[in-house]
Design goal:
homodimer; oxidoreductase (chains A, B); 43% helix; Mal/L-sulf/L-lact_DH-like_ah (chains A, B); three-stranded mixed β-sheet; 12 strands; globular; Ribosomal Protein S8, Chain: A, domain 1; Mal/L-sulf/L-lact_DH-like_NADP (chains A, B)
Chain lengths: 351, 351
């Protein structure tokens, strides 16, 4: 479909690499974030998501993000010392005001309360508000599946994506994630953009001087366009799956925007005001306790989910997070390889 | 994309039509269902969904379904006199056992309780169990948006659809629906199959002796196939949007299957045992009260959703249920036109 492999998620040359243990990745991220004045909770929470990204082979959510974290800070679009404020707004609902900080500390603060509510009531929802958001949603799903809960998460981004049948950017890349806990196995988790591809994928084609496949974007008039620069600077990206993906993107705008009193992707882009940094806004997370739904039937019923997974794998279908879990095992054993260019760029941040 | 217009949702010739008022549609459905011994609540509830389908221009969920309702009854796969049993299983969770009846009476029985829980707690979920399921999900979403709630619904069907990367049918067409209430306007509602197209669409191509477009199905070995008969009888349908649609289809299997102690699509097809009737199993419905999330901010925040809809419409994108609402206005004013063949087939049921 395209000459550029999506595993090359950042634009750095991977041939010339630096080997790091996960402990070294953690130490480097910590040093950079401390250097720029992030308070202890932010240093730790952001670092853990970057380590998790590198570890799971998602380099676009790994150390690479340190560069945009610092850019976001320099642009004055994230508070390095925010102390989130939790609001218990209804028996089954929480909202946490991140106070302009990155989402991670706010989420970690609210997480035990969300788990408690879901286990007490059967289902509960959390809105994270006023956060700078760049973390992968699977990282927010995992602590919930670890607690034995079924979980959904979604967040708007910047208005880069055209609604099906429209002509102008309006929706964000609006990722949607879902997790299902598995006994004695890593959870079944998917996490995908409702845009056809990630924005970084189109960016990579621009840098490589290559056209993008049809179906990824349109020009300023809403016509099909294969020139990455035109799509990125004047046109719009497309949703996956035509009007169905577009409907899902609209749902994300609504439930992680107005429903939790936070910005849509259009409002987030306006707030960015040309700074081109991390999107600002909210995230919605819903957690369900299967043991409350199933009671004494839980063990038997959850075993039937395992039968479904086995049927998928037996016919050659990959479970959504399989690649990530394989990368994780390998990284824990062998460490990771970071491009030398990226490594130097990060070191330059603290020179 | 294809020579057959998807508005021709049943195989009957539309040229030779019978005009009916909605009251006449209601009376005809009532007579047929009464004739076959459905008890009063089932006659009324099933009839109302058939009337709603005809009224909204969704003929595949209109009177046409009477034929399969009666087939399902004759095959012994639906109880005409089931009295559903409601279980208040956790503060925010309900399950209702449909006792083998059609889903509608069970849903109507549970509905006020679901609304009460969502309004009291902020979010609540309902599992409908052991029902014969054929109703459109938008019909289940509407009473919730009418009550001012945000709602999700999904249900498995029969194992006709291949997981991405697989080779055999495993998932159902697994529809997914979402609704957002709008002040003084019909709700924003989408409802789509996670398969590329509805099964009936492929059936129509078979009857018309026309090949189906690539991307709709595969043969028995999992290879791309454009012969509708091969896809329907020996192969599998495909999900929309590749691995993303496939992930959503798997989610529907899980949350409207094992999570609520009900059948997956593979289990439903096994239960059908060649009878080729309506799928059997469960449905999951989640309702959220935006007023509990937003409190005093509700009016302002919900107005921002209206801005999003206006931005969509202004650039030519259609809101998901727009066509349905236009058909509704017209049908209420002018009545509907039913194919004479269908009308005669239905009348033959009670001759």
């Amino acid at each position: 479909m395209t000459a550029i492999d999506s595993s090359q998620q950042h634009a750095y040359d991977k041939v010339d690499t630096v080997h790091m243990t996960l402990e070294e990745v953690r130490a480097l991220s910590t040093r950079v974030l401390e250097h720029y004045g992030f308070t202890r909770p932010h240093v730790e929470a952001v670092t853990e998501t970057l380590v998790a990204g590198e570890r799971d082979g998602c380099s676009s959510h790994g150390l690479y993000r340190l560069l945009s974290c610092i850019n976001t800070l320099k642009a004055g679009k994230v508070a390095p010392d925010a102390t989130p404020e939790l609001h218990d707004i209804a028996p089954a609902l929480l909202r946490i005001d991140a106070k302009g900080g990155f989402s991670q500390v706010a989420y970690l603060t609210a997480l035990p309360h969300l788990i408690d509510k879901a286990k007490a009531l059967g289902i509960a929802a959390l809105g994270i508000n006023h956060c700078a958001h760049f973390s992968a949603l699977w990282a927010d799903i995992e602590p919930l599946t670890d607690a034995g809960l079924v979980a959904f998460a979604c967040t708007p981004s910047h208005a880069w994506v055209m609604p099906a049948g429209g002509s102008k950017p309006l929706f964000g890349t609006n990722p949607l994630a879902f997790g299902w806990p598995r006994p004695d196995k890593p959870a079944f988790i998917f996490d995908f953009a409702t845009s056809m591809v990630a924005r970084g994928e189109i960016e990579l084609h621009r840098r490589a001087g290559k056209p993008i496949p049809e179906g990824w974007g349109v020009d300023a008039e809403g016509n099909p366009c294969t020139d990455p620069a035109t799509v990125l600077d004047h046109g719009a990206m497309l949703t996956f799956g035509g009007h169905k993906g577009s409907a899902l993107a609209a749902m994300v705008e609504l439930i992680a925007g107005p429903l939790i009193a936070d910005m849509t992707s259009a409002e987030s882009l306006a707030f960015d005001a040309g700074a081109k940094v991390t999107s600002m806004g909210g995230e919605l997370i819903i957690a369900i306790d299967p043991h409350r739904f199933l009671g004494a039937q839980a063990e038997t019923e959850l075993a039937r989910a395992e039968t479904l997974f086995e049927s998928m794998v037996a016919q050659g279908a990959r479970l959504p997070s399989q690649r990530r879990y394989l990368a994780r095992e390998k990284s824990i054993r062998e460490g990771v390889w970071i491009s030398k260019t990226l490594y130097n760029d990060i070191c330059n941040l603290i020179r």
